[in-house]
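Per your request, structure below.
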């Protein structure tokens, strides 16, 4: 297994390793960006998006992403992209990540231009917003785990409290040279454990299988890198759970919505 043990590599540096769409530029996966035996899912999604976003120079903004976690990703990661269709205002781009064991991530990204519309609605219920974290209250995870790259208050999940909903302020610890808010949002959007874990009586293996993300904000931004990640399991049975997700900025503005299918073994 080829693995980069340099734990100081930040997201911007990894994105820069992932060259323009269609070019096979291997990315050496640092240990500090892994979860178990695979790359952190949010990082994988951000890398695949970055490659897709550079397949052509004049793509409009990202509106939607369909992300399938098809297998473990480790070692030297390579992105491969393909333009599925380009219209006057919309582009569909396929982006895949391959590791030492082959295909590990399959994505379809939909880029679409803004349009003036008469019909508008904003009906997403806000979660309960904890106070924005202060510097003295911050924690990070162990160096060998992707949470070492992030900051948050307390634990990402308190297993002593049985709940189907997780809500936390999360941010990247090192945001130097990071100028792609969509890549950052995709990375941070998967930073909480699957919310089914808040309902389990014991530690059990869980694995995200599929992730649908819709970008709501035209120009996403937040203060000091803080994003509120909210995830709620609304159905679980037969070893598969379904969770609704949302991402909010420091001004309590909705940035993105999502939905994940999660396999659990308990």
């Amino acid at each position: 297994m080829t693995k980069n043990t340099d734990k100081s590599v930040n997201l911007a540096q990894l994105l820069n390793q992932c060259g323009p769409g269609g070019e096979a530029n291997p990315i050496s996966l640092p240990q500090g960006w892994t979860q178990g035996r695979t790359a952190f899912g949010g990082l994988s999604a951000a890398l695949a998006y970055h490659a897709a976003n550079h397949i052509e120079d004049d793509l409009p903004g990202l509106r939607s992403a369909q992300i399938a976690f098809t297998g473990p990703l480790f070692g030297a990661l390579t992105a491969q992209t393909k333009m599925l269709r380009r219209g006057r205002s919309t582009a569909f781009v396929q982006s895949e990540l391959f590791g030492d064991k082959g295909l590990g991530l399959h994505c379809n990204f939909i880029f679409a231009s803004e349009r003036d519309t008469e019909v508008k609605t904003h009906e997403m219920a806000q979660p309960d917003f904890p106070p924005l974290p202060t510097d003295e209250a911050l924690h990070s995870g162990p160096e060998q785990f992707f949470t070492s790259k992030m900051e948050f208050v307390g634990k990402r999940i308190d297993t002593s409290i049985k709940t189907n909903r997780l809500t936390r302020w999360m941010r990247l610890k090192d945001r130097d040279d990071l100028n792609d808010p969509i890549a950052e949002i995709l990375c941070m959007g998967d930073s909480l454990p699957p919310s089914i874990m808040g309902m389990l009586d014991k530690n059990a293996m869980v694995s995200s299988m599929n992730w649908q993300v819709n970008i709501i904000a035209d120009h996403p931004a937040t203060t000091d890198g803080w994003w509120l990640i909210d995830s709620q399991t609304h159905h679980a049975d037969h070893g598969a759970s379904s969770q609704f997700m949302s991402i909010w900025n420091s001004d309590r503005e909705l940035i993105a919505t999502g939905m994940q299918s999660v396999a659990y073994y308990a």
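Residues 11-113+126-264 form a domain with the Porin fold (CATH 2.40.160.210).

Regards,
D.
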